[in-house]
Amino acid sequence: MTVKEELAVTVKRRSFSAEDKVRILRRHLIDKVPVSDLCDEQGLHPTLFYKWQKEFFENGAVALERGKDSHQRRLEKENKALKVKIAHKDEVIAEIMESHVALKKSLGEL
Length: 110
Prior knowledge:
Blueprint (H helix, E strand, L loop, with lengths): L2 H8 L7 H12 L5 H8 L3 H62 L3
């Protein structure tokens, strides 16, 4: 086995959860820990760190819009409930008007 093959066998890929990635990015962005220090601590290549940072900023708008989406869904749900309520009231009014017209006819007012 060549040295390159031995290294490939012994090096394990680490996988970071989304929470881990955010924690690492936060340490850089908020705590001002240098990228080089973070990468050394975590065993990361700086290119991977910057890739995470780019994804974080590109997808940040989506995270903020989710609140807007939930607000939008709540409004749509409320709108639907109000439409059902209005439809029920319209049915009740139609029944009352039908009874009213029938009563007037029976009294000879129509």
